[in-house]
Amino acid sequence: MSDTSEAANKPDARTPAEIEADIRRRRDALAETLDEIGVRVHPKTIVGDAKAKFVSSVDNSLGRAYVGANRFVSDVRSQLVSEDGAPRLERIVPVALVVVGVVGLLAVGSRRRKG
Predict the structure, then answer these.
(1) Environment class of 81 (CB within 10 Å of its CB; exposed 0-12, middle 13-18, buried 19+)
(2) Is residue 104 within a helix (H) or strand (E), and if so which, with residue range?
(3) What is the mean pLDDT of each run of 10 residues along the chain (115 residues)?
(4) What is the pLDDT of residue 1?
(5) Percent of residues in the chain assigned helix, strand, coil, to nearest 5
(6) Residue 81's beta-bridge partner residues?
(7) Residue-by-residue DSSP string for 7-49
(8) Full-model pTM
(9) Residue 42's Cα: distance from chain center in Å?
(10) How far apart are CA 31 and CA 33, in angstroms?
């Protein structure tokens, strides 16, 4: 037989004062648990938790975006500047020509649409 069924079959050896104290402890613990549940299911708590999760998600996303952008800038810089800090003209000039060409094409395209 298990301990619980044996305890249920045995007469209680506690005094009435001990039983009352045990009941008070259990009632207090139950009241505390109910208070905690009430706080957790309160609409303000739910909204606050949702806001905190959203802010955390945005912070995490922004952090990843910052790291990615920083890595991209570092990679581009390492391609255009030598280790001693001097510009690599053999790489900068072609990039500049491509940028000027794209801007020129965009300008010509926008003039055609207006005219």
Answers:
(1) middle
(2) helix 89-114
(3) 54 89 96 93 92 92 93 90 88 91 91 72
(4) 46
(5) 85, 0, 15
(6) 87
(7) HHHSPP-S-HHHHHHHHHHHHHHHHHHHHHHHHHHSHHHHHHH
(8) 0.43
(9) 23
(10) 5
